Amino acid sequence: MPLDQIGQTLASFYDALVAEGIPEHLASLVRQVRQSETDYAAGSAAPAPQESERTNRLALVVEDDPQVRALAEALLEETELGVIGCDSAEAALNVLQARGGEVALVFADVRLAGQMDGLQLARAVSTLWPRARLVITSGQPVARPEVPAEAVFIPKPWRALDVLVEAERAACTPKPPLR
Description:
Layout: H1 3-14, H2 24-42, E1 58-62, H3 66-76, E2 82-86, H4 89-99, E3 103-109, H5 118-128, E4 133-138, E5 152-155, H6 160-172
Parallel strand pairs: 1-2, 1-3, 3-4, 4-5
Helix pairs in contact: 1-5, 2-4, 4-5
């Protein structure tokens, strides 16, 4: 299944359109996102926002390794962006659905917990939240055609300066107009 179709399916879900006749594996993904949204609303899928997350612009760190996620979060907390960490693409989508207009930066690993990987998340973000700056990272080589054109790829181990530069660009660059 091409990633573009997954992004389109998520877009149709996000816009509350009823998708009839979609393949079962896409219907399963939509049901999962709906369940995750219910869990998030109940407070179990993502941590509650902290005071630093109440800023106007947010950085979303999506990494399944708790130590690497904590390192990226600590680094990004030194910027003017509020920081929210997620261990899966599904948890990140929940945050984006709730606060997508505030998200300036999505910093995501390719390998994630859950059924979606970071590249699928990046495609969904570039389709649904085109104003968010995308930074994809991985310890494994990734072919450029797999990474959305709007995304920046930073290989692991990443340098703090590279991450901070992207955060600064996300924080200082005015939101582009929606197409």
